[in-house]
Amino acid sequence: MGRYFTTLTIAGSDSSGGAGIQADIKTMSALGCYAASAITAITVQNTTGVSAVHAVPPEIVAGQIDAVMDDIRPLAVKVGMVNDTTTIHAIADTLRRHELKHLVVDPVMVATSGSRLMEDDAVATFCSELLPLATLLTPNIPEAEVLSGIKITDKTTMDEAGRKILTLGCRAVLIKGGHFDGTKTDRLYGDVEREYVSDNVATRNTHGTGCTLSSAITALLALGLPVEEAIGKAKQWLTEALRYGADVEIGKGHGPVNHFYNPQKMKICEQYNS
Fold this sequence. Notes:
The chain is an alpha/beta fold. About 35% of the residues lie in helices and about 25% in strands. It has helices at about 20-30, 60-70, 85-95, 120-130, 140-150, 155-165, 210-220, 225-245; strands spanning about 5, 5-15, 35-45, 50-55, 75-80, 105, 135, 175-180, 185-190, 195-200, 270. The strands form 3 sheets. It has a 6-stranded mixed β-sheet. A 3-stranded antiparallel β-sheet has the order 8-9-10. The protein has a two-stranded antiparallel ribbon with strand order 1-11. A hairpin with a 2-residue loop joins strand 3 (about 35-45) and strand 4.
């Protein structure tokens, strides 16, 4: 008997549906995976911003992870929004008890406004406990600056930051969102160093793009793609999701991408070992 290719997302809930757990589940489902979830926080937000955050107790976060890992045994796991020391510790401690094939960590440290979302003690716990478990870390430039302590102004400083973050213990780092020489450039650091250049899509509907990209990578890793290929295909998929949702109006602010522009049927793995 076959089984679905399964994934788990550990992140916060977005009541507007464009980011967080909702974007993760939409993305993983659209790419043909069965998505389970562990919610770390409930946010009060819409397309214009976040007005409140209610954290889920760490023991409940850990319980959700254990319940999924013991039963569904996902092939790939993603960690998104988690910003306090106690919850980070609970997640890392719980994940260490389970055999992980792939862990994608998308650090949510800096808001679009530039405000820090993670306190210094939480960053230290994140770096010492969660980051070393990661197959892939996917910071944007402000987050990469926090993790590396290096101000990123060009490709040279981007490279310095990426290689510095690698020394913290993760297997690979993808720094997202470099806008140099008129192109959008993401760079991968690890056993393989690679540059990914994609088209800029003219749209205000960019809410949840970071969540969506990391979830797409997680789904493609679960489906068996190597890291470098999973990133490339995920970026292509996100560009199309942005393009197909570019002129659609959802809410008064930054709307979501079109997660279901080309949904795949749920894929079944005949040989499922975990």
